[in-house]
Amino acid sequence: AVPVVEPPPHVPARLGAFNAGDFEGVAPKPIVWLWDQWIGRRMTAGVFAEGGTGKSMFMLQMAVCMATGRPFIDGSTLAYGKSLLVFCEDEMDRVNERLILILNHMGLSFSDVRDDIFILARIGEDSTLMKFDRAGNGTLTPFWHDLEAEIIALQPAMVLIDTATDTFAGNPLDNQQVRFFIQTAFTSLAINHDLALCFLSHVSASGKASGSGTAGALAWRDRARVQ
Question: How far apart are CA 158 and CA 85, in angstroms?
Fold first, then answer.
C-alpha cells in the first residue's frame, strides 16, 4: 500500500484589503502611453493578424519611431523609449533586412537607433515562457527568468513577443490557462518593470470567420488590449 500524505490544513489569514477611504486626496497616476490609447506601460497589448501581413514589420517600425521621434503610421509622435524585441520565428538576417527597409524609407541609419533597439532572434530555440502539467498548473520556465534578467539590464519601455504561440506551452483553447499565462508571464513583467508588453498572434480560422480577428480562447482578447 502507498501511504497517502494529506497536505497541511490551510490556516486562513487576513488579506489586507485596501480601505477606499484612504484614496482621499490621492490623485491616480495617469496611464503612460507609448502609442496614445493603444499601447501603454504597465499593461499587455495583443496584435492579431493573419500570417505574412506585416505584424513584425509594424512593431519594428514602432520601435524605430520610439527611438527617433519620427511620426508613426498614423502621423502621431510616440513616447521615447527603448525596445526589446523577441522574435521566435525569424533569423537575425530577416530582422536586419526589415530594419534596413524601414531605416532607408525614413532616411535614417543604424546609428540613429543604437542603444535604443535590442533584438533576440530565437528561431530553432525553445522560447517557452510557461509550461503546464497534466492538472493544468502553470510554471514559469528558466527562459522567462532569463528574459526578466535581460529586461532588468536594459530597462526597455516596450517588450515585444513574436509570437505568443511560441512562448505558450498550454492549451490555447483553455481560457483558464491562457488567462493565467497572460497575467503571470506577460502582465507581471509589464507592471513590475514599468513597461508595455506587446505580443503578436496569428488569427485563427474561427477568428477570421467571426470577424473578431483573434485566435483561440477568448482570454487572449479579454486579458489584453487588442489591436
Answer: 8
